[in-house]
Design brief:
CATH superfamily of one domain: Antioxidant, Horf6, Chain A, domain2
Shape: elongated
CATH topology of one domain: Antioxidant, Horf6, Chain A, domain 2
Strand order of the largest sheet: 5-7-6
Helix content: 25-40%
Mean pLDDT: 92
Largest sheet: 3 strands, antiparallel
Strand content: 15-25%
Number of strands: 7
Length: about 150
Amino acid sequence: AELVGLSVDHVYSHIKWVEWIKEKLGVEIPFPIVADTTGKIAELYGMIHPGASESATVRAVFILCPQGIIRAILYYPLTIGRYIPEVLRLLKALQTSMKEGVAIPANWPENELIGGNVIVPPPSDLPAAQKRLQEAKEGKVQCYDWWFCHKKL
């Protein structure tokens, strides 16, 4: 995954922000920050909400797949910071889902019902349903019913 920051602030503000984060928090910012001083990019991505200041963007996270398709968008009000563990969980869940062809349950990998397992897609026809039942008998998947099965990766 690659990170890119975007702000309607000037480069000078970005430089000072990066310095401040390193000095006060001991954290290096290892990704580029784009200075969108005209706000055109921020407006294009819906980061300037109606009624909000034209010089302040909402806190937004966009996750794009390698093909450049937006897979997830998180918007936070200007007054609320992002919760980085959730952003990372979402990124890992999207990567796992795309790589493995599975669905990811709520609160994964600590789902209340199936723990760290992932949900396998439901069968699309009767032969596939019968195959799924056989996979359950063999212990390859665990099923609550033929249409709701999960497995460990």
